[in-house]
Specification:
The structure holds two protein chains of two kinds. Chain A is mainly beta. Chain A is built from four helices and 31 strands. By secondary structure, chain B is mainly alpha-helical. In chain B, helix 4 (about 55-75) crosses helix 26 (about 545-550) and helix 12 packs antiparallel against helix 14. The chains are: A mainly beta, B mainly alpha. At the A-B interface, strand 15, helix 3, strand 21 and strand 24 of A face helix 25 and strand 7 of B. Chain B: Pathway: Protein modification; protein glycosylation. Chain B: It catalyses: a di-trans,poly-cis-dolichyl diphosphooligosaccharide + L-asparaginyl-[protein] = N(4)-(oligosaccharide-(1->4)-N-acetyl-beta-D-glucosaminyl-(1->4)-N-acetyl-beta-D-glucosaminyl)-L-asparaginyl-[protein] + a di-trans,poly-cis-dolichyl diphosphate + H(+).
Chain lengths: ~500, ~750
Amino acid sequence: MKPFTAFAAVCSFFLSTSTVVCAESSFKPPQTFKNANLVRNTNLEKGYVRETVNIVVENVDKEPQSTYYLSFPSDVFDKVGGLEVRDRKAPENGPFAVDVVSAESTSDVHYVAVDLPQPLAPKSQITLGISYYLLNSLTPRPAAINQADKQYLAYSFSAYLHSAYPTVTQKTRLKLPSTNVPDYTTTNGLKSGADPERQGTTYTYGPYDTAEVAPGTTYPITLRYEFTKPVITASLLERDLEVSHWGGNLATEERYWLRNNGSNLVNQFSRVEWTLTNFQQLPSSAIRELKYPLKPGAVDPYFIDDIGNVSTSRYRPGRSPKREGSLELKPRFPVFGGWNYSFRIGWNDNLSNFLRRVAGADTYVLKVPFLEGPKVPEGVQYEKVVVRVVLPEGARNVRYETIHGASNNGLPPVDQIQSHVSPHKTFMDTLGRTALTLTAENLSDEARDAQLVITYEYSFWDGMRKPITITAGLLTVFAAAWAIGNIDVSIKKR
Amino acid sequence: MADTPVDALLKGNTGRNTRGLLRIIILTTIAAAAVSSRLFSVIRFESIIHEFDPWFNFRATKYLVQNGFESFWDWFDDRTWHPLGRVTGGTLYPGLMVTSGVIYHILRFLTIPVDIRNICVLLAPACSGLTAFAMYLLTCEMSFSPSAGLLAAAFMGITPGYISRSVAGSYDNEAIAIFLLVFTFFLWIKAVKNGSIMWGALTALFYGYMVSAWGGYVFITNLIPLHVFVLLCMGRYSTRLYISYTTWYALGTLASMQIPFVGFLPIRNSDHMAALGVFGLIQLVAFAEFVRSFIPGKQFQRLLTAMVIVVFGIAFVGLVVLTVSGVIAPWSGRFYSLWDTGYAKIHIPIIASVSEHQPTAWPAFFFDLNLLIWLFPAGVYMCFRDLKDEHVFVIIYAVLASYFAGVMVRLMLTLTPIVCVAAALALSSILDTYVFASRGPNPKIKASEDASTEALRSTRNPDVGISSYISKAVVTSSVVIYLLMFVAHCTWVTSNAYSSPSVVLASRMPDGSQFIIDDYREAYYWLRQNTPDNAKIMSWWDYGYQIGGMADRPTLVDNNTWNNTHIATVGKAMSSREEVSYPILRQHDVDYVLVVFGGLLGYSGDDINKFLWMVRIAEGIWPDEVKERDYFTARGEYRVDDEATPAMRNSLMYKMSYHNFNSLFQMGQAVDRVRGSRLPAEGPQLSTLEEAFTSENWIIRIYKVKDLDNLGRDHSNAAAFERGHKRKRATKRRGPRVLRTE
């Protein structure tokens, strides 16, 4: 019954908070807050940037305030995914509602309104934990390397976090994947002492005293660090989940359009060199293999692309009922920087692990992962994800929610997921099945554990529709055949 | 004798029903066996289109399904034969694609989402089930024994001669055409027997379908007239024959002319003249028969002789004049090669270069037909015993098809149906004799009957048949053993010889598990994913259809081979020095060159082994520039090692095959495992091309054609400079990289 409580909590939560903030293009948030302290943690261990910003916010207005505005430069804003704001002191209370302040796309700064559940009294403080990730913001430098060379990524950001409010002190802590950092910006005059401070793979810029610095000031910083791993990017992921009540089956199919955003090859691909690299097990910037964990009990996996089965895959089913199976996908060729690889995989699951019937009603609750995807240390970023849940024919009153746990689930706020319900006609359907399509942009494999809960109504007679139709159809055919067979069309005299 | 329950089932009206039901069950089982024995490759590998030509048919079917019939009819394909393009809609036999398209749309109408690929893969097995059924019908027309039809159906279902062209995934014209061939012949026999316009028209209808499906329709076009001609010569003219032939010819010719690729061939091409001639002849004979009923015998005889001479003379002169003046096309080259097996090798190397156009080796007959091949003459002999019209057909078919099967490997396919018919006739008569003739009366009971009825001995049926249980048992059991061995042989051949997709190669790991070599698809998919959409790929024509189907990139030449000169151009580019080849590549906008190299793995079907055909075909067009002799050593050997001729070692094909191959081995240890020869210590140097991709086992190697040099040097100079430059630079350590900051 655990999903139900979570689901109910989510329902009530979203009912209470949903407002769309509209503003004209030259929107300026009122200066009602001050950032007393700001710590930004940037994690660069994966092929995309993960940031967690903790801000101690203080109300400097005379009235209690309930709307805090986050600000992003527009070039950054297009890359932000999985934005979530929580009370740092009580993360288990779930994320706050956030609304993008709709503004012209040409404007330099985008604002996101955070609705605090309780208005913040004057002079009092709250610690906001803001977490998000940035896609496509790491650039390979040099842009083209030799096949066996090390790959370096460069990350540029501003020493001062972009904020709508004045900030008293701030610092940025960067976690790098390796100690090999050939270039990084050293600041001077921003603070006393060496800046940045290095400790292993951690680089710390600041703390800076920025009480006097106007909001929106930037101080560019660039780091270039070794990342001899592929930068895996899915420009599109289409994910189909098909529910079959008759078969007791949940069929999943995923179609990937992958790209490696790492450094291109200076020369063309050399098989000799690649054989050598593989033989010595050296790290490489090419995608060699993707490990895809499957839920316990997953059966019949397949891995195909446009021209058939990819024979290099392997499936290790989870032996005990609780262990995950592992699908090891090896692309047909190593995917180097700038190369593409598109494929599809699919498998079947037992529906009873995902579907519950509400006692005494024709209502069903389906809980499925929003996103699965390969689990690799270098991470995967998804530019666009289209999830389509195909419910049985005749399912009505479809509603969906995403579940939030104690930490960021990696999904964008619900109002940023586009959804529509359309009929999907297949396998001798008469009306067509109810298909719920959800489209989200800028996701990453942080959202692997995010759950999607769908409720729908489905009666006994909906289930009997197809057998009755087919029986009637066959009877019609037989009757017609019998009637035609009885007609005498001979031209001889009777 | 009291009726046992079994007898009640086998006698009288119920017996007829039971036998009918049994027959249906047996036929269904045969069809199921026919389909399932063709699924080896699907089970062992996957549902995939095989070999070369099927990839084009598959691509065309996809085009048909996506764009509709109208645009398929008008399809001009600019992604093949670059820069010429191909009028695909008008130069193919659409029957196969249209059949799959219709099946696809029916299934879509029933909202059954079957992928078009699966329809294409499984079309051939499905048709083989139908062929078995058509075979049953055909053989039943030949014999009164019900077992003959069932035996023929079973033979047709599993004989390797037919399976070779109809395994799942072998999506070629023959897949559907053999069914149409057999069924058309059945309808023809039915028409001749009944003299019915309906059967004649049905024959024409299926003949039209056959024309739309396979170029082998010419076989029917000549066999039916020949049958009629022989019957006429035997003095067996009848109104039945007249009605069925004229109906078939008139409607069938009209139907065949609806296919754009055939068009006016039926009245202009020599291949079709026999049908026209016999059509004329049968009119004359009919007229003569008509006249004879009015004129006394003596005068008629004279009139007939005069008429025959005059008409024959006029027809012959007319044919010669029309042929010389060019109204009637002379015999096509492929046709000549049917009469003279050496013809193609001299005049049209491109036809001779195809392995399936080679003359058949004798063991192939036994390999493909097993016990049927020695039952075949017996069956034909039995047709002579009661020589009805349909038996004449079997004899003619048998003679013609045996000859053709001896000339060309792939025509084994047309021989197979008649072998099945003849063998079934022979075997069923053995079985009937030894199994059922035992119903002859028991001597003891018979003696008592004799006494009581007191009939004359001579009026009694003579005691024919084998009554000894031992001889019955021996013969029956040996037949059963033969049949079991036949089944085992067919299964073995199908599984081992005919079920490889040839796109995917399989080998065994040391521990016995299957290891799949998937280099073709690896390279084709790389091309598909990582080259521009309109990058032109040059390869030898064998791979044209596969590149078009799997890599989806424009090609220069493909398996259609309609333009010999264009193929020769590619052959010249492959067989010439780089300085000669590069301008050819530039002129044809070639971006990538693809070669197949088996030297690392020992894969013998590679381009170096096909290389001599490229040279020969190029020599056919440019005898001054490419000479086959230059590629053989002074002692006439074809070598790739140290003693290879300069022409060989400088050819683009040689360089592309062995480029960088040395670096896999220790110094001087490089070995080509196909040719079994050690390669020169110094590998070939390429200057106008650069290696773009090599598949895991080196089977496919793709080269990118370099752009013109920036400094205006020629490529060999630039490459030499580059090599020298690199050696110097290797000593210099690269300093730390400095980040560019704005």
